Amino acid sequence: MLLAGxxxxxxxxxxxxxxxxxxxxxxxxxxxxxxxxxxxxxxxxGVIALGDQDTARYIPKQARPKVYDLQIPATWxxxxxxxxxxxxRANRGLQPLTNENRAPLSPAxxxxxxxxxxxxxxxxxxxQSPPVEHPESGxxxxxQSPxxxxxxxxxxxxxxxxxxxxxxxxxxxxxxxAARSADDAxxxxxxxxxxxxxxxxxxxxxxxxxxxxGRAAQASHRIPPALADAVRAVEAGWPRELAALLPDHRxxxxxxxxxxxxxxxxxxxxxxxRIQRRWWTHGYARALAEGxxxxxxxxxxxxxxxxxxxxxxxxxxxxxxxxxxxxxxCDQRRTDRRRGQVPALREKRxxxxxxxxxxxGCTAAGKGHRPAGGLCWQCQxxxxxxxxxxxxxxxxxxxxxxxxxxxxxxxxxxxxxxARMLDEAYTEHAERGxxxxxxxxxxxxxxADAEQVRILREQLLREHPELAAYAQEQT
Length: 475
Hints:
The protein is mainly α and about 475 residues long. About 45% of the residues lie in helices and about 5% in strands. It has helices spanning about 1-10, 20-30, 30-45, 75, 80-90, 225-235, 240-245, 250-265, 270-280, 285-290, 295-305, 330-340, 375-465, 470-475, and strands spanning about 50, 70, 155, 155-160, 315, 320, 355, 365. The chain has a two-stranded antiparallel ribbon. Strands 3-4 form a two-stranded antiparallel sheet. The chain has a two-stranded antiparallel sheet with strand order 5-6. A hairpin with an 8-residue loop joins β7 (about 355) and β8. The protein is rod-shaped, with a radius of gyration of 51 Å.
């Protein structure tokens, strides 16, 4: 039963199976402690082995299960199926399965006979081992339940067989999930043979994968108002039974799934129709009624996220959205499956990788595209804020320097203007002083000339008295 549960969760090559111990205990109808012991025994016998533990790295460490690989011999697959499995492994960058790395298993160890075989049980209990081995019992001392048999013969007819208390009804017998359940905290990766809950088949126990993301998804709350209204419209479309189980504070993984579906070209109304259709057609309503719904958030994610079964983006669960007819690619894939043909492989995209923030003292991590600077959004905001403050300080320093230079230039212009005014004043004063001196010199020269003329006139009158009358007339 444990091997069957692991096989249901594993890929087509038997690798990457990491269901939780609680899920395995429910499948195998045993206790969690028994699951631990049996898994250790299977590892010791070489039936299973520890696989790549990084496959479950996105699950929190305190809830992260171990990853096991089923050691299925390469000869078990057959040529055609082994070729498909090796092609799938090649698409994921893994080595092919051969007889060397997947050798046949060693024979099972002989069963140890029970020490109390054939001996009557003493003490309490309602089961007895008959001393005589019956041929139909295989010599194993089958138990009989006196007084609790399934049928009683009476005279006059037969009674209806009554189940013993240790027999579970058919509806209560847990079955192995057909896909990875939500309590496994796992999402089916590329190359897995198990369909996601958004595909054409729903899990038998209606447990949807619970997506988990790193701190990079915390930035999803900063969305435009129009997109926020669309998200609220989608959240209003949950079935009432499911909405009552969802937490009041919507997890980031659920908001991220809604945004991813809106980015895929669907409107809020189309997503609400998708939710209502999958709630009934994928069996989640029946699983809730039977008490098999374990993760409300995982179911909500499976109801809203896009399907990955069909490569046509306009395909909506087997129906072409813009035509309203059946999707031809889905029909062709179903036909190929009936004929035993392998569907065409979808374009292989690199699997998202984990990255750690390179900020000093920051321990944040994310999954997917690595930012250009290697910083998470919080460190990036801090760096941008510091750069903005530095730019503001630089601009302020530049403005202060320019203001100081302008003030110095104004002082220089004022000094030059005062120097020019002083030079003009000195020049004007010098010109005024030179003019007064020239006037005084001219006046002295005129007085000297007048004195000289007087002396010459007197001398002329002394020498020529006859000119005295003429000089008086001229006067």
